[in-house]
Design brief:
By secondary structure, this protein is of the alpha/beta class. It contains 14 helices and 16 strands. The strands form two sheets. Strands 1, 2, 3, 4, 5, 6, 7, 8 and 9 form a nine-stranded mixed β-sheet that branches. Strands 14-13-10-11-12-15-16 form a seven-stranded mixed β-sheet, sandwiched between helices. A hairpin with a 2-residue loop joins β15 and β16. α3 crosses α4. Bound molecules: adenosine-5'-triphosphate and magnesium ion. Adenosine-5'-triphosphate binds next to α5, β11 and α12.
Length: 400
């Protein structure tokens, strides 16, 4: 039987909350591999892979936050012949990869098994050397290890460790609403917050007819990418009709303030939805100094429009590093499709770089935000996305 041994990192440090973290990790694994059985014991999660191919399991686990590394194991009984032949099979795979040095590590949790750990390691090591004379033993720095765990249910054998993505299981660190544009930065920002265990949902502001279908398709595709990293949970994407607010702002305020006031309007609408749907934080892809409008002063004015904590995980990143990450995650090619988002359409030629909050508040006096916010929220569409697929589209009933 195939059993995957999953080792987790930081969860192990969580003391009394450990069980909660472990259960979240198990649940996230099961969500993505329906039907598998999982069990946590001795600081590891064991996954019975059932009918899933090792490739399928590998694909899922390399994307599941909270996992440090994992090994594909084989469970046999207590017969020495079975243990030996499985060990030789594992060693053969490594020899084929050109590996030269190894070590056998045995753990005997089931004490009724008659051979002691050291003895069993020595015996298996000798037999492996007999079969593969090109190998040698290196106890300190082996190129591969054969792990043998004698447990109540049988003997679990495994060799190489595959890296997981680290981080924390999604869901253990509250939740957040990501302001998802069609750009490069915001999906990466969402990914980093998922990595820290925040259950991230997304909100997008579109301004048809100034922005088209294709621009929104990009956003759906980006949300699909994020849904591959959230432990198989449902990711909700809120599609807000922003045209009316944008035009009202465009008409009422001096051009140099319009960008900041647009962002503040986005914050207001996102906050309304956060209050109704229970999101604890807002997340943006903002980055200090990246464009003229992303200054400390402007971000202060933007944060000032919400009572929610605003998380800006990319704040100190260089653009090159964000692009590299976007390529790894799989969002870069989507973000760079050539369709405008709503802000590039209305972007002022010379936006204020150090907006003073008094000036912003004065400029906003002519706009009835509470009405705009309620209208926009009322017209919002909700996409439910799971593991890269849109499951359902509905309208958000905001007036209950
Ligand atoms: P991005 O690459 O994420 O678009 P950016 O560097 O282009 O970021 P801006 O366009 O100034 O920066 O946007 C800053 C942040 O505001 C974005 O990262 C995103 O979180 C949010 N944002 C901007 N436009 C939208 C939009 N149309 N819908 C939702 N969020 C948006
Ligand atoms: Mg942008």
């Amino acid at each position: 039987m195939k059993i995957v041994i999953v080792r987790y990192g930081e969860i192990g440090l969580k003391g009394r909350n450990k069980k909660y973290f472990e259960l979240a990790l198990e649940r996230n694994i099961r969500n993505q591999l329906p039907g598998v059985r999982t069990r946590t014991t001795g600081g590891r999660v064991y996954v019975e892979a059932g009918d899933y191919s090792l490739e399928d399991v590998k694909k899922v686990l390399t994307r599941t936050f909270g996992i440090q590394n994992f090994s594909m194991g084989i469970l046999v009984g207590f017969e020495l012949d079975d243990i030996l032949s499985t060990s030789l099979g594992l060693a053969e795979d490594e020899v084929k990869k050109g590996r030269k040095s190894f070590k056998v590590e045995t753990k005997r949790a089931y004490k009724k098994f008659p051979i002691r750990s050291m003895q069993l390691s020595a015996f298996l090591g000798e037999k492996i050397l007999e079969r593969f004379p090109e190998l040698h033993v290196d106890v300190h720095n082996p190129e591969f290890r054969i792990g043998v765990e004698i447990r109540n249910r049988g003997t679990l054998l495994f060799s190489n460790r595959l890296p997981g993505p680290g981080g924390m299981p999604v869901g253990v660190s509250s939740n957040g609403l990501l302001l998802l544009s069609g750009g490069i930065d915001s999906p990466v920002a969402g990914w980093y917050m998922l990595k820290r265990g925040i259950n991230v949902h997304a909100i997008h502001f579109a301004s048809p007819p100034y922005t088209g279908e294709k621009a929104f398709e990009k956003v759906i595709d980006l949300a699909k990418v994020l849904s591959m990293y959230n432990g198989g949970k449902e990711l909700m994407l809120y599609d807000v009709l922003f045209t009316k607010a944008q035009l009202a702002i465009h008409r009422a305020v001096q051009e140099r303030f319009s960008l900041i006031i647009q962002r503040r309007a986005m914050m207001r609408i996102a906050t309304e939805i956060a209050h109704r749907m229970g999101y604890k934080t807002l997340i943006t892809g903002e980055n200090i100094g990246q464009v003229a409008s992303q200054t400390v002063e402007n971000m202060t004015a933007i944060s000032n429009a919400t009572d929610r904590l605003v998380l800006r995980p990319l704040i100190g990143f260089d653009k090159i590093d964000i692009i590299e990450k976007a390529k790894k995650i799989g969002s870069f090619e989507i973000s760079t499709r050539p369709y405008e988002d709503c802000c590039t359409v209305f972007v002022p030629k010379e936006p204020a770089t150090k907006a003073r909050i008094e000036d912003i508040l004065r400029a906003e006096k002519n706009i009835d935000f509470s009405q705009l916010v309620n209208e926009a929220a009322g017209l919002t569409k909700l996409y439910r996305i799971k593991l890269g697929q849109v499951m359902k589209v509905e309208s958000l009933a905001m007036d209950e």
